[in-house]
Amino acid sequence: MGENINIPAIHDDDLKSLLIKHDLYDKILRGEVRCSMNGETITWENIYGIFEENGKIKLVCDNIECIDKLKQS
Question: How many CB atoms lie within 10 A of CB 8?
Answer without folding.
Answer: 4
